Amino acid sequence: MDRMEKLTILADAAKYDVACTSSGVKRGHRAGKVGSAVNYGCCHTFTADGRCVSLLKVLLSNACAYDCAYCVNRRSNDVSRATFTPRELCELTMAFYRRNYIEGLFLSSAVLGTPDRTMELMIQTLRLLRGEYRFNGYIHAKAIPGADPALVHAMGLLADRMSVNIELPSEGSLNRLCPEKGRAPILGNMAQIRDGIAENRRDLALYRHAPRFAPAGQSTQMIVGATPESDLHILRLTQGLYRRYGLKRVFFSAYLPVVSGPNLPAPQTFQPPLLREHRLYQADWLLRFYHFDAEELLDEASPNFDPALDPKSCWALNHPQFFPVEAERADLETLLRVPGVGPTSARRILLARRSGPLDADLLKKLGVVWKRAQYFLVCHGTRPPGLRVKWESLPARLAALEAAGRPGAGEQLSLFDERGA
Amino acid sequence: MDGFCYRYDGTFAGFLCCVRDIYQYKEPPNLFLPLSDPRPSLYDERRVETDLALARRVYRRLTQRLGERGMELVRRGFLTCLDHRERRLCAVIDLGLRTGPGVERRLGDEQVLQVSAAVRHLQRECDHLAGFVRFSDRGGVLVGSIAPKNQVLPLLRPHFCDRLAGERFALYDRVHSQLLLHQPGPENGGRGRWAIVEALDFTVPPPDAQEREYQDLWRRFYDTLAIPDRYNPRCRQSHMPKRFWGDMTEFQPPAPAPGGPALPRQAPPP
User: Fold this and answer.
1) Are the beta carbons of A47 and B226 separated by less than 8 Å?
2) A104 in a domain, yes or no?
3) Last residue of a domain, one of A201, A219, A237
4) Domain range for residue A317?
5) Per-residue confidence band for A420, with pLDDT thresholds at 50, 70 and 90
6) What is the pLDDT of residues A343-385, one digit of tens each?
7) Fewer CB atoms inside 10 Å of the end CB: C or N, chain A?
8) Cβ-defined contact of A36 to B226 (cutoff 8 Å)
9) Contacts with B167 from chain A: Cβ below 8 Å
């Protein structure tokens, strides 16, 4: 089997992994080494579905011993199988890297026999890449749940970011769809990486040259829509992962029926829940950058997101007592709660109001999305002249704004009927 | 007519010499033109010779008055494609001289806002290009070509010299006819020597067999990665505007091999 064929099979097998970020670590040129890493990450291209490609994302092997119901690489699925040798993968990485195609390597693998054996092979590849090929760029490595702690530690010393997939939002779903992976080993590995990072931070404070353990932190991902959990459940889990396990990112992946199985939704009628995934990411942003709590966005009475309105607008409409917010005096936390104002524009408002009075025109120039914010924000206690809106009509107005931004909205009418006259 | 037209050589040092003349002779600028531009203007013309020692003095003095951050806004603003950028920068400098350091934070001022928006555009284009530049190997030298709106080479230079410190590479900016050259060596802490030079033309020989193989591998990797069920061209285009596509390997047709037919590509999703 030649390189082209292997790359095709193993990239195809890895493409359902969501994370392809290269952020979180800054490492400049080192003598005799190849490459660097930038703190904010770098996207090298975008796929036809609009996802960032920054790493060479491949599996080391797709010959899996497990039989997880939703997975394209499961044992009982009839697909071509391939395995890279460590040297092949290193050469491909280096050749792509110097042509500026990629930021580094994303190494994951199907379970080859046992988790420990798989991890050993992955570590061997990373050692070769960091050692003989002197690679100084970004490496994201996926730990296999249930692997020995010593192997996880060895991998963390070679990789920048580690991740362990939590796969599904609840233990019941996990037992039903992938019986070979348990919730406990997954969380056990996550806790080990968290403790390793904390310990490494203490070591670095004492010894400047202590080897660094997963300096870009850890992330995880879960499949949404294959199992019956509510958005509230998923969001609470996400918040828990951020707070208790110190994760950098939690990724959501709308379930795609790539294979069929008795415990899965029927593929014929199933539509991938892309909007739901989008709402979860919006809420995830609100948790990380806007200081919202999961319980503020959803509650037991309405455990799922509104398909017509984004979570922030929903929160605003449920809290009329909070508005209007005075742009001249409000603090950062208050400004962040206004729909149409983000972290960047909120900080710019704080800067700009020191040197002069604010008005609607200036707020627009500062990056505030005025068509949204105009209903919630005032300057010097006055609304823009001509804006007369009842609070009751706001949900419809905001929903219309959002609908206008969706694909297919506002397309120009065609002079010619496409179906033929 | 009121105001003056300044003619200078188009470099930042030349611009600083103009700034000095503006204040020395109290002749406010209305227009800046390069020395090579044959068009006459309606204003009184002033020719300014570039004097590096003078420019350095002006730079030091302005840094004291405007602060490091304010001067960074001026320096970066000069690299942008903002129209009448020199005149706007003069307005920013004038405001800075009157109000002191922190001029970059006066977003309420029209000119400061315009220049900082243009600098953001420049910064964004640099961030894009740091990822979208594609090098190809020509006998051990990496070559690449781009067509940016702003003058991005001075800002891309540290990134690529750091990353590809051990490589000989050349990156050509077709719009501004500038060429960034790099060669490994012990200079700059092991990052090697670099230069940005004027180059009116830049052509490279066709790729050899190994280069063609890696380009084909990359194209195949890119085509494989898309998930047809999630096809969303609008999202891709908003993240990666089409003007960059022409220079990116994954959107170029496979280079024809001298001996045999090029590798067929997989069909794109519907």
Assistant:
1) yes
2) yes
3) A219
4) 311-404
5) very low
6) 999 999 998 888 888 888 889 988 999 989 999 999 888 777 7
7) C
8) no
9) 98
Among all residues of chain A, which has the CA nearest to that of B190? A31
Q: Say which residue the tokens 């930042």 belong to.
A: B12
Residue B172 has pLDDT above 90, yes or no: yes
The full set of domain ranges for chain B reads: 4-124, 133-198, 206-270
> Does a structural domain hold residue A421?
no
Q: Is A362 on the interface with B (CB under 8 A)?
A: yes
Edge to edge, the sheet with strand A55-59 lists A55-59, A104-108, A138-142, A161-163, A218-224, A249-254
- A324-351 confidence digits (pLDDT tens): 899 999 999 999 999 999 999 999 999 8
Residue A305 lies in a domain: no
Examine the pLDDT at A308 and tell me if it is beyond 50: yes
DSSP state of B220: H
Q: What is the pLDDT of residues A154-178, one digit of tens each?
A: 999 999 999 999 989 999 998 888 8
- pLDDT tops 60 at residue A412: no
Q: Is residue A282 part of a domain?
A: no
Last residue of a domain, one of A197, A219, A241: A219
Q: What is the CATH number of the domain that holds A85?
A: 3.20.20
Comparison of pLDDT for B17 and A179, the residue scoring more: B17
Measure CB to CB from residue B135 to each of A15, A98, A351 and give the nearest one: A98
Co-location of A198 and A91 in the same domain = yes
Report the residue of A46, A106, A277 to disrupt the B interface, i.e. the one with the largest count of B CBs within 10 Å: A46
pLDDT bracket for residue B204 (50, 70, 90)? confident
For residue A151, the Cα-to-chain-centroid distance in whole angstroms is 25
A72 touches chain B (CB under 8 A): no
Residues sharing a CB contact under 8 Å with residue B73, sequence separation 6 or more, in sequence order? B92, B103, B104, B112, B115, B116, B119
Sort residue A106 into left (φ over 0), alpha (ψ -120 to 50) or beta: beta
CB A225 within 8 A of CB A272: yes
CA gap A211, A219 in Å, rounded: 21
DSSP single-letter state for residue A135:
B
ipTM of this model?
0.90
Q: Using the beta-carbon criterion (under 8 Å), do B227 and A256 form an inter-chain contact?
A: yes
How high does pLDDT run on average in chain B? Answer: 90
User: Same domain for A214 and A315?
Assistant: no
Give me the residue from B166, B236, B238 closest to A47, CB to CB. B236
Q: Is the pLDDT of residue B68 over 90?
A: yes
The share of chain A scoring above pLDDT 70, in percent, equals 96
* C-beta separation of A37 from B169 below 8 A: no
Judge whether A253 is closer than 8 Å to chain B, CB to CB. Answer: no
Question: Which distant-in-sequence residues (6+ apart) come within 8 Å of A328 by Cβ?
Answer: A353, A357, A358, A379, A380
Contact B108 A355 (CB under 8 A): yes
Separation CA A193–CA A88 (nearest Å)? 29
Task: State how far the Cα of A329 lies from the Cα of A248, in Å rounded to an integer.
Answer: 33
Q: What is the pLDDT of residues A130-141, one digit of tens each?
A: 999 999 999 999
What's the mean pLDDT in B113-117?
A: 93
Question: Looking at the partner chain, which of A7, A15, A256 has a beta carbon nearest the beta carbon of B220?
Answer: A7
Name the helix (H) or strand (E) containing A333: helix A332-336
